Amino acid sequence: MLSPERPGQFRVLCLFALFEAACLLDTGMLFPRESSSREVKELSGLWSFRADKSPDRNLGFDKAWYKSRLRETGPVIDMPVPASYNDITQDPTLRDFIGWVWYEREVVVPARWITDEGTRVVIRVGSAHYYSIVWVNGVKVTEHNGGHLPFEAEVGSLIRKDPTQPCRITIAVNNTLTLETLPPGSIQHIDDITKYPKGFFVQNIYFDFFNYAGIHRPVLLYTTPTAYVDDITVVTDFLDNTGRVNYKVSVQGATTATVKVTLMDKDGHCVASSTEPFGVLKVVDVNLWWPYLMHESPGYLYSMEVRLMAANERSTHEDVYTLPVGIRTVSVTSTQFLINKKPFYFHGVNKHEDSDIRGKGFDWPLIVKDFNLLKWMGANSFRTSHYPYAEEILQMCDRHGIVVIDECPGVGIKDIRSFRNASLNHHLDVMDELVRRDKNHASVVMWSVANEPASEMPPAEFYFKTLIQHTKALDPTRPVTYVSNSHYARDKGAPYVDVICINSYFSWYHDPGHLEVIPLQLNTQFENWYGKYQKPIIQSEYGADAVPGLHSDPPMMFTEEYQKVVLQSCHNVFDQKRKQYLIGELIWNFADFMTVQGITRVVGNKKGVFTRQRQPKAAAFILKERYWRLANETGRLPPWTKYPCSL
Ligand code: BDP
């Protein structure tokens, strides 16, 4: 990360390393945006769907379902995209299905995309869980290992083969988890026919959320010219009143190319420009990007327009791509987290992508509602527990100044076999994909490479050392962490992280019902971790389940009162420690969410301060009161708010 203590040369080296790292990733993953040279066609809506319920789940491949229309090889049902398929029907075998499901959609492609050979047509899947294979008109175009991150393939030549036919897109998705997937899981077959029906098996998972599956984010077709802006990397900093945007533009498909880069302010006025593919744009009287409640106008974004004039064997092209850019710095000391060289205290939440009916499906009304709730309660940050969220959510964070700890899907790494090379290599690949997608978001201030791994196991040291060093090499400008609930003295990865993140549930999983232990145990926790590592600490999870509407006084577990007291008792300790080295507190959880069925879960995890339908429990008001007070103390509230405030 950029540290204010370090001289300029360090920054230059960092930038060089970041741009080198960007080169190591074979291609870019710019968010598809319309421009004068690019079109986007969204394929959200109804797709045809069939789950392959054959005993080995392989019938679709044996019978090549991708070769013809899905409805010609068997019955299909309507399936909305994006959405998890699990909660869409009344069929319990589909809710709990494990194996391949098949989606299909026919698309009419604009004639100009076909006739213009200078147009590149790309299919992009925002995310599908977990393993996906994509065919266009029966020809496989790509496959992808992992949910939560986008993947794409060029399909122009296939579409052009028979322009009289609509373009048929088939996507097969498999939610089976193995010890090498992220998150890991395992399939257990049980053959005891006296107790279980023939062919019975279960998927064991080591994480606490429902393994929703399907096409979770929008599928798009988009165009670029055949010579195009493939990637942009920006790293920002500032000195006094002058901002600096260090940038690099990567171009594909051109034999000759010239680039014009223009940085515009919010009103569209040019503040800096260049004709080099990489360099530094200097912004006089810079408007820095500030977090929500730390400044009167948080989330200030410039627009960086990249205009490429290029030629290749076929023709001359102009490509235009505009990237929002927030100018800010991030650094850590042994006791502080600094944004723009000022101490930043995370008062925020952990979330899930989770809601009724949609499961993990992308949904704008839900996203906007969640941002309104975050702002209502005065939250300035969240962690993307326990996997990368949709990029559209990060764009909202950029615009609203909500600070993000960007977590990869490394959750539930509990089995010692998940520390082997195959798992590590996949984990490294996932970090590559995550950094490639999210590196330009001002809101993203830290990478989290895992949540609660078995970091006390001997192989964890090599595993996390490698993973954290790799992530720092990919992006030397941001701190790296993972979230621990291991014992401070046995945690193998802690020496390598920049910030210690700890989850703990005193008076819940430990000493249930004994609220009186919280002050002592939480205090001991902080003193132990800081004493050993001298690194800033975030309480990355704490909380208690509350079934909405369940009350008792004196408080008993699972009531709204108990949840309230747990929070208040923790806050008292946080208030002491934030004067020293505690740099944040993130409640578990923003909202109730679905889990597998089990004796500790009453239709899901109820640690939300909002219900799954986003109605506040008593705890939400406790947090609201606290977060606005913290903001009042530590930041500069926007003029349109007054404490105590109701937005
Ligand atoms: C934490 C996990 C989180 C769980 C939470 C809980 O990180 O995923 O949902 O416990 O049990 O340890 O509520």
From TrEMBL:
Sequence ranges assigned to domain Glycoside hydrolase family 2 catalytic in this UniProt record: 330-631
Catalytic activity: a beta-D-glucuronoside + H2O = D-glucuronate + an alcohol
GO terms assigned for molecular function: beta-glucuronidase activity; carbohydrate binding
Pfam families (alphabetical): Glyco_hydro_2, Glyco_hydro_2_C, Glyco_hydro_2_N
Keyword Hydrolase applies: yes
Residues of the signal peptide: 1-25
Domain Glycoside hydrolase family 2 immunoglobulin-like beta-sandwich: 227-328
EC number, as in UniProt: 3.2.1.31
Gene Ontology CC, one term: extracellular space
Domain Glycosyl hydrolases family 2 sugar binding: 41-225
Gene3D superfamilies the record matches: Galactose-binding domain-like, Glycosidases, Immunoglobulins
Biological process terms in GO annotation: carbohydrate metabolic process; glucuronoside catabolic process
Regulation: Inhibited by L-aspartic acid.
Subunit organization: Homotetramer.
PANTHER family: BETA-GLUCURONIDASE
UniProt record similarity statement: Belongs to the glycosyl hydrolase 2 family.
Job description of the protein: Plays an important role in the degradation of dermatan and keratan sulfates.
Protein name: Beta-glucuronidase
Species classification: Eukaryota, Metazoa, Chordata, Craniata, Vertebrata
